[in-house]
Each structure stands twice: as structure tokens, then as C-alpha cells.
Amino acid sequence: MVRKQVLILLLFVLFLLEGTIVPWLLPGSWQNVISPNLVLIVLLFVSVYHHRHTALVLGIIFGILHDVVFYGDMIGTYSFVMGVTAYIMGFIFRMPRAQMPVMMTVIILGSLLFDSLLYGIYRVFSLTAVPYNWNLLHHILPDLVVHFVFGLIIYVPLRKQLEKLGKRAKMEKAA
Amino acid sequence: MLELFKLLGNKRLFVILIGLVMFIALMGFTLGPRASLSWPEKFLRDTVGFAQNIFYKPAGYIAGLFKDIANMRDIYKENEELKIALAHYTRDKVKYNLMEEENKNLEEKLHFTNAQKERNNYTYHITQVVSVNSDTVNRSLVIDLGERDGIKVGQSVISSEGLVGVISHVSNFTSTVKLITTMDAKDPNSNGISATALDNHKVFGIIESYDEVSKTLQMTQIKEDDPIKVGDTIVSAGDPSKYPQGLIIGEVTKVQVSPFGKTKTATIKPAAEFQDWKLLFVVSQPEVPQ
């Protein structure tokens, strides 16, 4: 049971790092280009290796957190987009034994879906006026690279822990 | 079995639709101007802000150290320039003191009211950035001053280079700064900046949108016979309710006739750099008695 709390703590720490340390790690000229969302990548892992409903709930909770803390225009964008992305990715790839290439595909597709949905919402509420092509080239693809690298780094340790979490849940169900 | 599956399937669709509608309603509700935040929001922001503060400051110092080592060679040159600037400053200071005294005397003679005298007496609160939003559209920062320190929604935030943004939401110990790079004429919360040139107060225009592609601000509604020219430094013209007077915004890089004729549009390169956030200043204007 402790693992579940550790997972939530890990997500919270990643959320903190995202707003505080990551901007300092990026070179100055990249700071306005890349918007890495590390929490989302972990949620994609949870969605594939654990359960998509857990990922949906965590996505909504951490999305709301992001929305409230960085309240610029409106609340609900991140919450909606993170929940939906994690859920859809878990729904399409329902394979808890997925190998590395499959997981990396999930990260690529999830990252694309996340940024595109976000852009779509901002466009609908006319908060941005740039065309999608420009956004794709200048924000979404650079993001994708960072997300991919981050996914590669955390793949081995996170998968191990998530599988243990899954086994524990199964044993409890059997008992 | 099939019946059950159908029921479940329908239920899932139902939940998804309800969720979608609720989220759109939430976004629509929070998009417009709101008087103040509810207490759960304030609590969440202050708690997270406290935790972020622990991470941000040391990271900034360490990053700053590496940068300083890299910039070691430029420091000699910079020092030279600063010395020249200081000499200019001391010379101007004498002039400024004399003028201020004269101005005060004249104000006394003309029987200015207290409110009129205090109008341009801005206070600058120094503040530390706590965290940066990574979202590229909704650019915002969190700073470590809040309601308790007298920060109010709508106050301007500047860096040492120029205008950075506006306070958009305030909680007890932290507040959010919406950067001017999110300015958009269509935004329901948008408030244009009335602007003029630093050396020529005959220039007048309104800055109300930021072009993400060219990374410049657009200044519109400039009259045809306006003396604005490329290279002018643009400052805020002052507006009793919103932006104080004389905040540096940027430099004109292009002036062209607007598509409808009759007026001109200027392209302005912002003076602030929008990266490596450390210290900022919140400018608060003296209270205007109603």
C-alpha cells in the first residue's frame, strides 16, 4: 500500500520540479519554446502498466493543481487534457506487459495528443492566434523530444515499481 | 451478459459526456473576470507556493553561479559601462533634485490637493519568483507576495529591464503574474496599455496584442501625423486605474500604415527578456480616493 502513496508523492515532487528546476536546466533561448510536462509522462506509464482509471483520476487531480497554481486565464484546461490523454492512451494500449518500443510509442502519441488538445482548447477560447503548423513546429515537436528522453530515463525503475504495485493489488483481490 | 455490457457501455458514454460538459462549463466560468479566489484555491496556491519556494531559489543560485563563471570575461567590459552610466546618473541626480524642488514649490503655489501631489508617488515592492508555468500559451509566474503584502489584482510587474506583466490573481501569500506575452485583443480580460515614447510625449498609441511568431508587441491606433520613429523607446503613458506612468515597454522596430489606412501600427520589441526569472518589482500606485 505504501507504494501508492509514494507514487502520489513522486507525482507531486515532479510537479514542483517542473515549475522550479526545469526552467533553470533549459538554456535561455529554449525556455520560451519547450514546456515539458513530466507529470503527464509518469501518468502514461501508470495508465499502461497499472490501470487507466487510476491515471484518469490522477490526471484530473494534478491537472487541477497545475491550473490553480498557475491560474492565468482559466481553470480546467490542464485537468481536462491530462485526464483525457492518460485515459485514451490507456484505453488504446491495454497491455500491461508492453515492451519498451510500445511504451515509447505511447509516450510519443500521448505527448502529441496532449499538446494538440491543449492548443485546440486555447484556440477555441481564442487565447492563441498562431496557426497549428507553427505551433507544431515550434512547441509540440521540441516538447516531444524532451518527453521522449524523460520517458527513456524513467522507463526501467518506474516500470519495475508499477508492476510490483499491480501484483500487490492482484494478491489483495485474491485474498 | 450482452445486456449488462450494453448498460455499462452506455453508462460510460454518459459519464464521459457529463464530464465533458462540466469541464467546458468550468472553463467558461473561470475565463471571465473574477472578483477574488475561493479559499480552497488560496490554500492550495499558498501551500504549493511555499514548497516551490524551497526548490526555486537554490536552483536559481546554482544556475546563476555557472552563468557567472561563463560570463567572467564580460564582467570587465560591463563594469566599465556601468561606471560611465554611474557618472551620467550622478550628474542627472543633481539636475533632478533641483527640478523636483522647483516642482514642489510650484505645486504648493498652485494649491495642489494631496491626491494630485501623490499621484505619481509609486511604491516598488521587490519580490522573488517562486515558480514558472511551462505552458507556452498561458505564460504565468508565481511570486512570493500576496494579499497580506498589499498586492492587488491589476498591478504592474516589472523587471530591471522593463514591463513584464500584470498581477492576475492574488492569494494570501503568493500571486500569479500574467506576462504581457499573453496579451491578446480578443481576450476578455485583456487591458491595453496606453503608451508613449520616452523622449517625445506627442507619440500616443495603444498596445494590446503580442505576436507569438515574431515575438513582438503590436502598438495600434497611432495617428497618421504621429512623430513615432524606429528606435524610439516606448513607455507606458500612465493611466489612473491600470498601468503607472513611465514603465519601459520596449523599442520600436518597425512602423507601418495599418491595413485600413488612417492610422499607423508600430512593432515593438519588448525590453524584458522573459527568461531566467529571479527578482521582480510590483509597482503599486497610491490609493485614489473615490
UniProtKB/TrEMBL annotation, chain A:
Subcellular location, record wording: Cell membrane
Keyword Repeat among record annotations: no
TM region positions: 29-48, 55-72, 78-95, 102-125, 137-158
One GO BP: regulation of cell shape
GO cellular component: a single term: plasma membrane
Membrane topology: Multi-pass membrane protein
UniProt keyword annotations, A-Z: Cell membrane, Cell shape, Membrane, Transmembrane, Transmembrane helix
Main location: membrane
Entry's family note: Belongs to the MreD family.
Name of this protein: Rod shape-determining protein MreD
